[in-house]
What we know:
binds iron/sulfur cluster; 18 helices; alpha/beta; Ubiquitin-like (UB roll); Rossmann fold; de novo design (two linked rop proteins); 5-stranded mixed β-sheet; binds flavin mononucleotide
Amino acid sequence: MSVLLKKNLVFNVADREYVGLDLYRSRGGxxxxxxxxxxxxxxxxxxxxxSGLRGRGxxxxxxxxxxxxxxxxxxxxxxxxxxxxxxxxxxxxDRYIITHLTFQLLEGITxxxxxxxxxxxxxxxxxxYWEPQNKLRASIKEATEAGLLGDNILxxxxxxxxxxFSGAGSYxxxxxxxxxxxxxxxxxRPRLKPPYPTQQGLWGKPTLINNVETLTxxxxxLKNGAEWYRSLGTSDSHGTKLISLSGxxxxxxxxxxxxxxxxxxxxxxxGGGPKPGRTIKAVNIGGASGVLVPQExxxxxxxYGACAxxxxxxxxxxxxxxxxxxxxxxNVHNRTRFFLHESCGKCTPCREGLRQTHTIIHQLLEGTAxxxxxxxxxxxxxxxxxxxxxxxGTAAGNxxxxxxxxxxxxxxxxxxxxxxxxxxxGGREExx
Length: 432
Ligand SMILES: Cc1cc2nc3c(=O)[nH]c(=O)nc-3n(C[C@H](O)[C@H](O)[C@H](O)COP(=O)(O)O)c2cc1C
Ligand code: SF4
């Protein structure tokens, strides 16, 4: 994996640089924790609120509000969990943070725990990240020996004990309530919400669950101030976003971009554009659970508001480019196979919807489906998106829905009755 960071913004790192504890401290690391421990938690939460930081795990929930919800709970036994499951295909930002910016992450977790009033924390790390897990284990030990974790942190009286929990390879366990079940030794299936984890989380206690990237933002915000952070983005979306850039482009890797940049700029300026002689056919934004959009949509700015309006899911920040040699149906077929494999089977719309949609796309690729099957595909996708129990099922329909919208002709061209289908499609909205 190459790192294409052009500037040091929030993630203070030059190309492939591992920031060990001494280097991190020499650059001002842990001054935010020192500052936070010396002022009221309310003042730090207010600063975070003003920064406008929103969760980077996919749902973009305001981080300060979540911390406050845990803090305000009458139950005093509370937990903080760092979600490092990073299961979204095409996403590799959290891995980079864990292996290169380990102490910035640990400082972020410590501050979040202090503000939420939690003294126990868990890093839920995906099973496949055994090397990052080792790095975390060694770094937790080093931070504890330096008085930055464990009992009486920096002489403040605040204590935080962190442990690592290894996932077992399930994509669904990245969903916060399935993650809680997994830690508790139950089946990794989602729970009904409410109650939310902030109300009744791990072992029934209030729990703050945040993504790796979200937590790693916190020390920089509290060190440099909310105004500095807001100045990096736009009036709608503050700060920066890590983008896992891959697919049919010239340079693949991790980039940190300020909010407001367009997807075209990300692909051209950081990714070098498509390979010589090729053009962009589609871009998948947000990972397997994200959307497939045509190149006409690439002038949309990376902003929560603008993306929501354009029907683009920023999600984990994966951007995967498909050039003109790629088949949309094959790409969507891969996704439905992935989700079918990862669906827990608890609810009918997701379990049966994925089975049916996967079969129909397979038949389309085999040339045995008709235009009526494309209509069925649309109905099943709609049911999955609106009636699934958890985010896996609702998001599994995103690439299906967007590709049916923008690339309907490609679906119809694969039908047995494609002549008839093409006529039928003439009366429909078609963008690609
Ligand atoms: C199927 C599914 C998988 C998810 N996987 C992850 C993941 O790997 N990492 C993550 O941080 N959030 C993941 N999430 C989102 C979490 O449920 C949760 O919203 C997030 O950890 C909250 O952190 P944030 O507020 O910092 O974004 C997933 C959600 C769903 C529905
Ligand atoms: S939507 Fe899918 S993954 Fe979620 S509960 Fe239903 S079957 Fe399980």
